[in-house]
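One thing: could you explain this record?
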Amino acid sequence: MTSEQKHHEKLEKLIELVPIIRQLFATDVGIAISDTEKVIHQDFPEYFGFGIAVGHKLNPEDPMTIVMKKIAGK
C-alpha cells in the first residue's frame, strides 16, 4: 500500500465523520474536504451557495494549498 493510498483512507474516515462534526456546532456550518489538488467532499447547507463542488480544483497559489503540498511532500 502506498502512502497516497493510506492518506486517501484517512480522508475517507474524515468524510465519514462529517455529519458528527456538523452536529458539534450550534449554528449551520459547511465542510469541504480536499486532497492536495481538488475538493473530494463537500457538505454545506443549501443556502450557503459557496459554489464549491466536488472536483473543484484548488488554486495552486493559495497559501493553504502550498502548505498541504509541503506536508504531503509534493
